[in-house]
From TrEMBL:
One of its GO terms (molecular function) is RNA binding. Pfam families: S4_2. Keywords: RNA-binding. It comes from Blautia faecicola. This is RNA-binding S4 domain-containing protein. Transmembrane segments: none annotated. PROSITE patterns: S4. It comes from the Bacteria.
Length: 69
């Protein structure tokens, strides 16, 4: 499981996928999120702008990342 450290209060879902190198760019992030391939805390979320806070877990393509303060 990869850890994403927050610099601010939150990070948006698309930004987190890019920061973890799970997607190459914002366009790819948008597509995989819209296609329902990304889960946040074990629930599919299709909002690219979803705000992720400390403790949230994102899963995509068999990989997980945890958001930490």
């Amino acid at each position: 499981m990869e850890i994403i450290k927050l610099r601010d209060e939150y990070i948006k879902l698309g930004q987190a996928l890019k920061a973890a190198n799970l997607v190459e760019d914002g366009v790819e992030a948008k597509l995989v999120i819209q296609d329902g391939l990304v889960k946040v805390n074990n629930e599919v979320d299709i909002r690219r702008g979803r705000k992720l806070y400390d403790g949230d877990v994102v899963s995509f393509d068999g990989q997980e990342l945890r958001i930490e303060k």
